[in-house]
Write a structure and sequence with these properties.
Elements (H helix, E strand, L loop, with lengths): L1 E6 L8 E10 L2 E10 L4 E3 L3 H4 L7 E3 L7 E6 L9 E8 L5 E7 L2 E2 L2 E2 L5
Antiparallel strand pairs: 1-6, 2-3, 2-7, 3-4, 5-6, 7-8, 9-10
Length: 116
């Protein structure tokens, strides 16, 4: 299992709209896996089975935006999951968004992850 957790003052900012988790390419989230709106609505990428079939049915939301915790989990991690993942915090039109990324390295049955 791989889990990325971000603890940051999210919902305290009035223009916060939600968070997006996905595959990171060329400096941005190129293919989203799932997103969560400010009010907690989880939106899975309907094209995930075509864009990243190896991740379909294994990506889950584990956060709690009311506590300013954004957490995403990928279950049953394998070598095929070794890639860069990204997170984008969405704000109103004037503030745009903030992004971050990490590389998942799979070693045997182990994995590395990063917690902010």
């Amino acid at each position: 299992m791989f889990q990325w957790t971000l603890k940051k003052r999210l919902t305290s900012q009035p223009d916060f709209r939600g968070v997006v988790f996905g595959i990171w390419k060329n400096g941005y989230v190129a293919s989203y896996l799932l997103s969560v709106t400010k009010n907690g609505r989880i939106v899975l990428n309907p094209g995930l089975k075509d864009e990243a079939p190896h991740l379909a049915d294994r990506v889950q939301w584990k956060g709690d935006l009311s506590k300013s915790i954004a957490a995403f989990q990928i279950s049953h991690v394998s070598a095929q999951d070794q890639m860069e993942y990204g997170l984008r915090l969405e704000y109103g039109a004037l503030k745009g968004s903030q992004s971050d990324s990490l590389s998942l390295k799979v070693e045997g049955n182990c994995h590395t992850d990063r917690f902010n």
